[in-house]
Design brief:
- This protein is an alpha+beta fold.
- The chain has 6 helices and 7 strands, in the order αααβαββαββαββ.
- It has a 5-stranded mixed β-sheet with strand order 2-4-5-7-6. A two-stranded antiparallel ribbon has the order 1-3.
- A hairpin with a 3-residue loop joins strand 4 and strand 5.
- Helix 2 runs antiparallel to helix 3.
- The longest helix is centred in the first third of the chain and has 81 residues.
- The chain starts with a helix and ends with a strand.
- The structure holds adenosine-5'-diphosphate (ADP).
C-alpha cells in the first residue's frame, strides 16, 4: 500500500523536475542568443558611429569599412546561431535519451514491484494449500476417496510450485547469460505428450488433445521443451473455458517442425501480441486482474525457443481464442 502511494508521487516529482530543467535550459539558451545578438548589433552601431565621426576618411573608403563592419556583425550572428542550434540539438538529443531510459527504468521497476507481489502470492498459495491438506490428513481418519483427493490436490499444488521455481531459476540463468543448453535428438511428440499428461493431472476437468506427426524429431534439451510446452498449456488452460478443449498439434516437414497450442479463450489484442513475450509483462490492469500469474511464462518460452534456433509467434483474434506456434528446425538422422 505504502509503495503504491509513494511510487506515483516520486515519479511525478521527477517528471516535474525533468521538464522544468529542460524548459530552463531552452529558455537560457534563447536568452543567451538574444543577449549576444543585442550586444553584437550594439558593437556594430558604435563602430559605425565612430566611423562617421572620423570625418577625415574618404567617402569610398568609409563605405568599404562600413560594409566590413556590417559583414563582421552578420558573420558573428551566423556563428553563434550555428553554435546555439548545435547546442540545442545536443540538449534535445540528451533529453530524448534520458527520457526514454528513465521511462524504461520506471516501467521495469513498476513491473518488478508488481512481480514481487504476484510471486509472493503465487508461492504462498500452494504452500498454504499443501500444508492444510497435510494437517487434515495428520489429524483425521479419512475415507480413502477423500484422502486420495487431498493427496492428489497436494501433488498438483507442489507441481505448480515446482514449475514456478523452475521458471524463476531458468529466467535468472538466461538473464545472466550462464545457461548452456545440452541438446540431443528428441522425438517431439513423445516429449510434448508427457508434458500434456502432467498438465492434465494438474488441471483435471480440462481437455487437452495431442495430435499430429508422431515421427517428427528435433535437436533439443528435453526439460526445456517440457517447460515451454507446460507454460503454453498452462496459459491455454488458465484463459480458456473449462468445457472447450485445448489442442496441442505437431506438424513436421523437411525443414521445420511446428508445435501449436490452440485454445478457445478470450484471445489477445493485436497491440498486446508482441508485448506478451516481454519479461514480467501481463495484459490488463494490475489492480483489476483476476488471473494468477507472474508474467514470466511467455518470456521463458521465447528464450527457450531462441536457445533452440526456433521461432515463437502468436495468432489471435479477441473473442476467438489464441494459437501459439513454435517452429523448430527439423532433425533427420
Ligand atoms: P502470466 O504468468 O501472466 O500468464 P505469461 O508470460 O505466461 O505470464 O503471459 C503474459 C500475458 O499474456 C498474460 O498475462 C495473459 O494476459 C496473456 N496470455 C498468455 N497466454 C494467453 C492465452 N492463451 N490467452 C489469452 N491471453 C494469454
Amino acid at each position: 500500500m505504502n509503495l503504491q502511494l509513494k511510487w506515483p508521487l516520486k515519479r511525478k516529482a521527477l517528471s516535474i523536475l525533468y521538464w522544468t530543467l529542460l524548459f530552463y535550459m531552452v529558455l537560457a539558451l534563447s536568452y543567451w542568443w538574444f543577449a549576444l545578438e543585442k550586444q553584437n548589433r550594439q558593437i556594430e552601431f558604435i563602430r559605425l558611429q565612430e566611423l562617421k565621426i572620423q570625418s577625415g576618411t574618404a567617402q569610398s573608403a568609409s563605405q568599404s569599412i562600413e560594409s566590413t563592419i556590417t559583414d563582421y556583425a552578420n558573420r558573428k550572428t551566423i556563428q553563434y546561431t550555428a553554435e546555439g542550434l548545435t547546442f540545442l540539438a545536443f540538449i534535445v538529443l540528451g533529453a530524448v535519451v534520458v527520457f526514454r531510459a528513465t521511462r524504461r527504468q520506471f516501467r521495469l521497476s513498476e513491473q518488478q514491484q508488481n512481480w514481487m507481489m504476484a510471486i509472493t502470492h503465487e508461492l504462498k498459495t500452494p504452500i498454504a494449500v499443501t500444508r492444510l491438506n497435510l494437517e487434515t490428513l495428520q489429524k483425521r481418519e479419512l475415507e480413502t476417496s477423500v484422502r486420495d483427493k487431498l493427496l492428489n490436490n497436494s501433488i498438483a499444488e507442489t507441481g505448480r510450485l515446482n514449475q514456478l521455481c523452475s521458471n524463476v531459476l531458468l529466467a535468472a540463468q538466461f538473464d545472466s547469460g550462464n545457461y548452456r543448453a545440452n541438446k540431443m535428438p528428441l522425438n517431439l511428440f513423445d516429449v510434448v505428450s508427457r508434458a500434456a499428461e502432467d498438465t492434465r493431472s494438474r488441471y483435471p476437468g480440462y481437455t487437452i488433445e495431442v495430435k499430429g506427426d508422431a515421427t517428427a524429431n528435433v535437436i533439443a534439451e528435453e526439460w526445456l521443451i517440457v517447460i515451454l510446452v507446460s507454460n503454453l498449456l498452462e496459459n491455454a488452460v488458465a484463459y480458456s473455458p473449462r468445457e472447450k478443449p485445448v489442442t496441442l498439434e505437431i506438424q513436421g516437414n523437411q525443414q521445420n517442425v511446428q508445435l501449436q497450442v490452440s485454445d478457445h479463450g478470450p484471445g489477445i489484442d493485436a497491440a498486446e501480441q508482441k508485448k506478451i513475450f516481454q519479461k514480467f509483462y501481463r495484459t490488463g490492469n494490475e489492480l483489476t486482474r483476476q488471473k494468477k500469474g507472474t508474467g514470466l511464462g511467455l518470456y521463458l518460452c521465447k528464450k527457450i525457443a531462441e536457445a533452440h534456433n526456433a521461432r515463437i509467434s502468436v495468432e489471435s483474434q479477441p473473442g476467438k481464442g489464441s494459437r501459439f506456434q513454435v517452429s523448430f528446425p527439423s532433425f533427420h538422422a
